[in-house]
Amino acid sequence: MHDDAQHIPVLLAETMRLLDLSPGEIVVDCTVGQGGHSLALAEAVKPDGRVIGFDVDPAQLEFSCQRVRQASGRFEPIHANFVEAPRRLEALGLRTDAVLADLGYSSQQMDDPRRGFSFSADSPLDMRYDPHGPVTAADLIASLTERELADVIARYGEDPLARKIARKLAQTRQREPIRSTAQLAQVVQEAYGSRARRSRMHPATRTFMAFRIAVNDELAALGSLLEQVLEGAGKVNEGGWLNRGARVAVISFHSLEDRLVKRAFAELAQRGHATRLTKRPITATASEIAANPRSRSAKLRVVKVDGPVTQDAAPTVPDPPTQRRSMDASPYDT
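Predicted structure:
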């Protein structure tokens, strides 16, 4: 059972201000979740605009579809990973004016003990956004070598004790399979030993994040989306999925994600294919953090797609001084 009253979309006001939507525009919501952002997007582009919403979680997509359609009309749900967005838009014969990717998981996913995202309650060690996905966290822990476990925890969780945790996992699974969130949290706590008492966060926090990222291949999906934004921005004159002037906004929640976004947006600006609307990432205010503690780590970056300069758009050579021009004419008028 969903409770949309518990769901608070992160950085909503800032996101809507920077996306600067107009009625009739086409918007892609890459991560619909419980529909908080989708609802605001649909309100901004109605009555003739459309929101194309992607999510790999069918239950959330169904809930959000009903919520947004009841309030604002034209919402088109697509049960797929957001890396499919360019291809799906092309199939629909559409180009988008704005893209939003909120990379956080929803409160409903986090708080549902059946999903295995949290160690706050003992549950099966799942962590899949798509319940039909091929691999669970328990599968990874059972099948990866000790070295591979350490790589996952170090790369995606950035935990300095990754090797020690991996060794403890390998030793424990020889005695019994690790299939629950409580088991995993306990193993990590044992690997930390006395350091667990000095840790500002629960010792298992980084390990849980690492396996969640690995199970859902999150960084690869984000990297693919950003590559398609880079490619699309360079082809706005040839068609493609992005309109000239499209705004692309990404809300990330940890340094691994933000690093990818920062580099991609910097490359877009360096190529001259986009303008960065946020020189530095926008973060939540103290009042938003108080109302929604999960917004504490959120970072919003936005670019506006300019596309390559066409020959028609290039500055013209000024007229010779001998030719009369009006007093208010610019030497770059065409």
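Summary: Residues 1-5, 313-334 have pLDDT under 50 and may be disordered.
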